[in-house]
Amino acid sequence: MNLPNIKEDRKRENKKTEFIYLNEEYDKNAFKGQKYFIRTYGCQMNVHDSEEISAHLENIGFVKTEEMEDADIVILNTCAIRENAHDKLYGFLGRCKHVKTSTNPNLIIAICGCMAQEENVVNTIMEKHPYVDLVFGTHNICDLEKLLINKTDKQNIEVISCEGNVYENVKYKRDSKFKAWVNIQYGCDKFCTYCIVPYTRGKQRSRKSEDILKEVEELVKDGYLEVTLLGQNVNAYGKDIEGELSFAELLQKVADTGIKRLRFVTSHPWDFTDEMIDVIAKNDNIMNYIHLPLQSGSDRILKLMGRRYTKEEYITLFDKIKNKINNVSITTDIIVGFPNETEEDYNETLDVVNHCEYDSAFTFIYSPREGTPAAKMEDSIKLEEKECRLYKLNELINNYSLKNNKKYVGNTYDVLVEGINDKDSSKVFGYTETMKLVNFVGGEELIGKIVPVKIIDAKSFSLDGEMK
Ligand code: SAH
Ligand code: SF4
Ligand code: F3S
Asked: For a surface tag, which of 131, 245, 408, 465 has the fewest beta carbons within 10 Å of its beta carbon?
């Protein structure tokens, strides 16, 4: 039993990162014939972690099921970014408890991900949810086989608080046969004052470029068309390893593998270099799409958030990217209602939105996270006011999304087809290089292919097209 500890999570002792090459063997039949159900909340990193968790489970005999009621083990891979992420977990846990008490008393219920690293969550699980069998943290994923093989009837909490290592030889059960996530960096050291991620994911640590390139080369060989490089601050890639490539250099090398579509998330505006812009502009297989989180347009709030750039610096960078990268689409993240955000502060944010005319944005009401500095700030702004600000901001953003999307009408773009449209099975959906969602008439045989599609209509959140 190991409990999470936020004080430990906060520490950055700058110990050298250990690179651990996994090679343990387990009994492949230990859970033969048993089924796992996995539910994932949160960001792409969690989605990719679930692909790793699935591989660990299949390594000891489990097979996947899409029906929770059929499962022998349910894994909930959680997110802690905002309070509503917590609410979602507790809602779903209720369902799991029902299955366990009514139809399947042997069901193993396991919780992992960012919430597992939170002290208050683990305390609540120990006190109020004794039917949960296992809690394991973001640093314990590679122990999953061991934890399950050695499982007893007692609730087990295995959450280590540490700065983190880099594991290699990790196996993934990838959800897609044509697009893949590739971690290039784990953790975060930016400590934005509102954010829980540096505590739940440990220090910022890069993978070695040789290991990243090897992984991408294999994906290309296996027929993958798209790779998205993952990190909380991909621009800071390599800074923590002496003599390592910069992110711009890494991008170039990954592009040279010949992968058809190369993407990356997330770029913090702070470390975005001119060299990076040049590399993106010059390589046709690096997609002209950039997610550039703003958070706020007010210098006063940006400072309180610890974001390390000003409104003016952000706009300068934005303009440079727009000018240098052909037809680039740029999206963002914005938080409204940070403690004591005034009407003027908020208007500064709208001002930036009006300048940048984003292709789209994820917008959030600030949510206090226990243990972060901002959670201790007094806040005089009422929730209704924050909701009103969010509503107005969304209206503005949607207008710009529509305006940008309309520019696509009449032109033809390459679309990577991902699946059948949920609402209309005569249609498929896919994404342009600029990450626009396109729906058009087509069948299953197009899935996993890049096809030219002429855009015939534009909405705020998607485009309609027809195959050329
Ligand atoms: N590393 C990325 C962000 C990852 S978290 C970056 O720095 O840009 C994704 C988004 O969640 C953030 O960009 C932010 O807009 C939002 N977010 C993070 N903490 C939040 C909080 N406490 N309340 C509301 N939104 C938050
Ligand atoms: Fe959170 Fe800031 Fe790190 Fe992004 S850069 S993950 S917002 S602390
Ligand atoms: Fe959520 Fe953790 Fe990602 S808090 S947003 S799952 S890094």
From this structure: 131
